[in-house]
Design brief:
It is built from six helices and no strands. The chain has about 90 residues and is mainly α. The two termini are about 25 Å apart.
Length: about 90
């Protein structure tokens, strides 16, 4: 509700780490425990409601270690088939 009321998106510069391009979705995927992180579904739902789902999913790192990697890359790296399926839908 906050994002909608303030015309913000999860891909707004307020919510992306300027030093490496990391979004909340990338952070959530990097913090999967036991194959799950409920924040992933919540973030995707919020992005869908604010109209930036595609942009959030396709946002990529600018950090030299992960440069160019998107949420899909991280989900694959973490061997999370459930999130891979969710991201490509």
């Amino acid at each position: 509700d906050f994002l909608l009321a303030n015309h913000k998106r999860l891909t707004s510069s307020d919510f992306i780490d300027e030093t490496n391009g990391k979004t909340a979705l990338l952070k959530a995927l990097l913090n999967i425990k036991d194959g799950k992180n409920e924040a992933v579904e919540v973030l995707l739902d919020i992005a869908d409601k604010t109209g930036d789902l595609k942009e959030l999913i396709n946002s990529s790192y600018t950090d030299p270690c992960y440069k160019g990697q998107t949420a899909l890359h991280i989900a694959i790296e973490r061997r999370s088939f459930e999130y891979v399926k969710l991201l490509v839908q």
